[in-house]
Prior knowledge:
It comes from Acetobacter malorum. Homodimer. The protein has 14 helices and five strands. By secondary structure, it is α/β, with parallel strands linked by helices. It has one domain (9-242): ATPase, nucleotide binding domain (Nucleotidyltransferase, domain 5), CATH 3.30.420.40. A hairpin with a 2-residue loop joins strand 2 (70-76) and strand 3 (79-83). The model is unreliable at 261-273 (pLDDT under 50).
Amino acid sequence: MQVACFDTTFHSTIPKVARLLPLPRRYEERGVVRYGFHGISYSYIAQRLAQIDPELATGRTIIAHLGSGASLCALKDGKSLETTMGFSALDGLMMGTRCGAIDPGVLLYMVQEEKADWRTLVQTLYHESGLLGVSGVSPDMRVLREMLAKDATSAQSVQIAEALSLFVYRIRQEIGALTAVMGGLDGLVFTAGIGQHDAALRQEVCKALSWAGVMLDDAANQSHDAIISTPDSRVRVRVEPTDEEREIYLSVLTVFSGCEGRYAPLTSFRKTC
């Protein structure tokens, strides 16, 4: 037996109007719609919230999956209502080497003025953009912060600082959009490599969200506590590690739960998970 776990499945609850792209209908017929990604990670966090924080699990919560790939998911009543990635994993937030959402006119410029073919577009947009492209140095947030700490005055450092600022700006921008879609915000969850470990980034994002009711506990944030918002914050802010491999494993066990014979040991082991 083979089991496929799709990274898009969790977003199947997104309303049709949010899935449509403003293109001729023939593209929709060919499957060119917004699918969303990082669904396995979001599914894990949603199930985790149901266990440790039912209020957020059933409220209006934004999950920020911030790593080399990055996206946000608006979770309402435990289901995906909207997400920042769309037809491809190139959409949405600025990432390590991916550009995220940009004006399509830029692509026309590259084709018309630089005579770029599709291979050049793929290489540029997927592998040479994002933090790497803007900083001119590295796609790794840790490397960029270390370099900036050593020298904050060189021309290279200016580019690094701009890359970090743009990364944070895009996150704040998309959080604002998702908050509007949900009609408010009850919770914000940071996860994945950058979201879980970069206290400075969490601070930069949260400090700009006071309008939404976010109040950050600086000490809790620096020590990477599970809850990093103040007790009187209208929005609860959490830091939670994701585990996509575990979520895939549990999904496979769910499929096997109706099987007998050689799959029985797997289904019985599920009770310990």
